[in-house]
Amino acid sequence: MRWSLFLLFGFGIFSLVKADVTVVQSIQAVDPKGVLQPAQEMTLYLTGDKLRLDSGDISSIIRADKKMTYSILHADKVFVIMPHLAGGPVVQPMPEAEPVKAKRTGKNDRINGFDCVEVEIEQSDGTTLDAWMTQDPQAAKAQDSLKAWQSGEYAPLLAGVGLRQGTPPLAGMEGMAVRTTVLDEHRQPTVRVEIKQLSSATIRAELFEPPPGYKETSMEAIDSLPLPENASDLGKSPAEKKAASEQPKK
After folding, report:
1. How far apart are CA 155 and CA 60, in angstroms?
2. What gap in Å lies between CA 48 and CA 151, rounded to an integer?
3. With contact defined as beta carbons under 8 Å apart, do 84 and 70 qualify?
4. Across all residues in the chain, what is the average pLDDT?
5. What long-range pairs does 145-148 form, CB within 8 A, spacing at least 24?
6. What H or E segment, with its residue span, contains residue 79?
7. pLDDT (tens digit per residue) in 126-180
8. Using 50, 70 and 90 to split pLDDT, how confident is the model at 79?
């Protein structure tokens, strides 16, 4: 089912920090010559037990308070409601590499308004992350709100925008990654993930509802619609998006 990847979760009962968080993030493939390709932008809105992810013409709104997910296709002004299941996620996350060694390089920079230190993180699959980490108070506050969504049922959605919690961070990885470049086994850059904006401003309640004028539809009707160009990328890791971008176009 083509839209199943937007219907990610079946929620249990949980308690969340009530602070509002907005994260605007870009994901860019890097070609073999080291040139950054056009960015795909994603915006995540989080307030308590509500979460929204926007990517191009697609939005997913997770309403844990209502135990339902809205999946919205803006180009057709339609949405699907899926009740949350008791048994856990509808879509299981793909296995991901784990950090095995972290080393600070001694370099510092200010990136998108945040003071950062550079950390090289070796991963279990042979890749390396060149991460610029910040311990800015605003970033720390955002992390506190994200933590409840970065475990259990919530991990796949956060991993899709590079905000994966996973195992406890190694020494040297403290803070939030503002810019991360994935290096392959030959230390060639493949993907860059960057937080462009981070805000704790109050989020309007209407962002967690389907827009006015949109019509509720069924999964069967959605399956008959043309799939938006960016749809197959939602929920994929940066490495998976990079691999997909290198496939020959049909």
Report:
1. 15
2. 15
3. no
4. 77
5. 145/16, 145/17, 145/19, 145/20, 145/21, 145/46, 146/21, 146/46, 147/17, 148/14, 148/15, 148/16, 148/17
6. strand 78-83
7. 999 999 999 998 888 887 777 767 665 656 655 554 455 555 678 888 888 999 9
8. very high
DSSP code per residue over 170-203 = PTT--SEEEEEEEE-TTS-EEEEEEEEEEE-SPP
How far apart are the C-alpha atoms of 10 and 54, rounded to whole Å?
Answer: 20
pTM over 0.90: no
The neighbour count for residue 197, using CB atoms within 10 Å, is 12
* Top-confidence residue, 223 or 2: 223
Residues 118 and 132: their CA atoms lie apart, in Å, by 4
And the tokens for 6?
């937007």
Task: Count the helix, strand and coil residues of the chain and give each as a percent rounded to the nearest 5.
Answer: 20, 40, 45
* Strand partners of residue 26: 41, 194
Residues 35-44: contacts with CB under 8 Å, at least 24 apart: 36/192, 37/245, 40/230, 40/233, 40/241, 41/196, 42/160, 42/161, 44/161, 44/163
Q: Which residue has the tokens 């049909």?
A: 250
Between β-strands 128-134 and 114-123, what pairing exists: parallel, antiparallel or unpaired? Answer: antiparallel
pLDDT for residue 64:
82
Enter the tokens of residue 79: 């949405």
How many CA atoms lie less than 13 Å away from 188 in the CB half-sphere?
A: 10
